[in-house]
Amino acid sequence: MTESLRLPVTGGFLAALLLGARLGSGVPPAPAPAGKTPPVATGQLAAQLARMAHPPPTEHWLDEDVERRNKQARKAWFEAMHRAAPGVDWRAIERRNGLAETARRRALRDAPPATHGSWTERGSDNQAGRMMVARIAPDGETLYAGSSKGGVWRADLDGEGWTPIGDNLYGGAAWLEVMSPDRAGDPPVVLAATDGGLVHRTVDEGASWDEVAGLDDPWSIRRLAMKSDGSERLFMVARGDSGSFLCRSDDKGATWEAIYDLEGFNGDVWLPRDGGGTVWLVTSSQLLRSEDDGETWTVAGDLPGMRPTSAELAGSEAGAPTFWLALSSTTLYRSGDAGANWVSVTSLSDYWGVLTASTVDAHRVAWGGVEVSTTTDGWSFETVNDWWEYYDSPADRLHADIMGMDVVPDGEGGETWYICTDGGLYRSRDGLATVENLSLDGLRVSQYYDTLTSTADPAHVAAGAQDQGYQVTSTIAQDDDDPFELEQIISGDYGHLTSSDGSHAYVYSTYPGFILIHEGEDDPVLYSASFPSGESYVPWIPPVIADPDDRRAFFFPATRLYRYSRVGSTWLPSTWGDQEFDLASGEYVTAMAFSPLDSRRVYLATSYGRAWTSTDKGLTWTQSVNRVADDNWYYGQAIVASNTDIDTVYIGGSGYSVPAVYRSTDGGFTFEPWGDGLPDTLVYCLCEASDGSGVLVAGTETGAWRRDPGDDEWWEITGTEAPVTTYWSCEALAGEDTFRFGTYGRGMWDYHFVHAPDVRIDGSQLRHLGRVVAAAAHE
Questions:
Q1: pTM
Q2: Secondary structure (3-state) at 414
Q3: How far apart are the first and last CA of the chain?
Q4: C or N: which end of the chain has fewer Cβ atoms within 10 Å?
Q5: What is the 3-state secondary structure (H, E, C) of 110-156?
Q6: Residue range(s) defining the domain that contains residue 634
Q7: How many domains does the chain have?
């Protein structure tokens, strides 16, 4: 059950492979994509071995069928976590929560610091996450970049001095434009938009973000572009309940109007980047052009092929212009006569809607998917680098998963390409022949599923990230005054980090496909074990729980409970008890916890809102008489067994149709709603203070919350210091009044709480919040 490659984390994977790694026990090689078996000819063996050493980023993968399955599995997992009654739109609810949180931060801009605690950013300082877009400010000296749920950032053109200006902005920025200030000496105007239709602007470098006017509550944005002729006029392709429209703003994004009805088609707009004034628009059947900013349109040409479902347009000013058109994400076409005629260039594979062309070379275009594909002759395409090359050379090899590409003229006849990946932001100044990583220092936008700080050495932190692998601090010297630097010791996506005694002697976590075993406090060695055979109902990243009585064993809950024990250099599973938890079709265990007071007492929750209790360490189980929720619209995402009372347990989960948190004080026999104060949301994590005080915190889609013993409700603790993002995981640091949160977009943050009565909020903050709540209630 424990497979393939046992690797000490010293000297890198390729070195370990080439210097006699044993193909016997440890991390499994990534399967080759169907039809794409890596060659093993002389000169290519090292490349194949390097690829085998790195499990692929799992959100997407080059084998189209595997990519499809992974996308579907992750989507299904995410939807299941946000379980709600029919007709309840959890995305719309979280959109309102996010807007309310941005408004709250705007209202609290000048409020004094909170008295209930303080926040410290902990990193990672050197492992960036998903970046979406890059723009250069009008001064030509400042680079702005948008992230996925990590806000907006600025730095110099070399990526030095990254500074967040969007910690108070929900949703990050998939689209970004930076414009000249209204008054000389003021900061530039920054407009940020999400793929999900949230659009905000700031005129004070992010001190506050304001919603724009004139948009009909769009729920999707396909393009945001600014004219380069000095007018700073903006165009946007947006989609909402009333359809798809091309919208225009004449006042730097403050107000908008719809100027063309795309009749539901996912079209695109392209603007020259060299000062040209023509606006080009792709409809469902034609390419249109306008010389008066969309007041009137003329037909440039008909689209090729059958009626498409979507279109992305890229142009090269070096042609007439030369246009490149991706239709229905399946075929790439080219026009050398400004759209009058089209020729089919190639079928698209590994394409995610990212298409960009050179400003100086009519034959160069690139598209993005897992990797970047590009051409220098307009016909034959090759990848800039294979995704697995990044891991041995992150400074000059692109990370996998391309979320955006932008090309900016340099004013001297050349251009700079910016490539946004799941591992940060890159640039190229030679047409993608080489790339430079601009995010190796200070771009702190990691997307963490979980963290685990060692009780043996609190300087040792392990983290599981989205597409940035399993990371540790123990292999890098740390500066106590700075955010952590972490080393990615294996690629992929990892969650549910767990340890029997809290140390890093043995740490267990899960990847979508196997269990990762980390052995060693200082010099970790990695192993893997397969999921139990025959388990079909397993979430994308399933839970795993260390055995509190044996640090070399762990439990894997699914439709049944399994216990893995070490036998030699392998971990073998066996069923643990006879209880089947799939009482409904597709039901499985989603969370499980041992009581810290007695390891025989175990609690678990399921994807259908049921709660179970065991008094014999999981061999037999009793179901709660009222499950958790009265109605079957609950997904138990997080569970905490009290460290002060063996009969008290808390469960957090999807609170869109029922309360988000439940509590039992009778050993799990009955549960009561305990979510007062929380918005309708998903509780990703719950955590109890390690000092026995009973202080609880919760992480949600948009912030962090706290509830003390005796409180009647939860109260928000994000304040004005911590970012507005998803708080996915939490741990209570041993011996400290500190909770460590892993966020999905802004890395790790520590909340240092204060024990005192009436520390929640001061009067000025309360008045601000009252105004925000009152305003939100009337929306």
A1: 0.91
A2: coil
A3: 56
A4: C
A5: CCCCCCCEEEEEEECCCCCCCEEEEEECCCCCEEEEEEECCCEEEEE
A6: 448-753
A7: 1
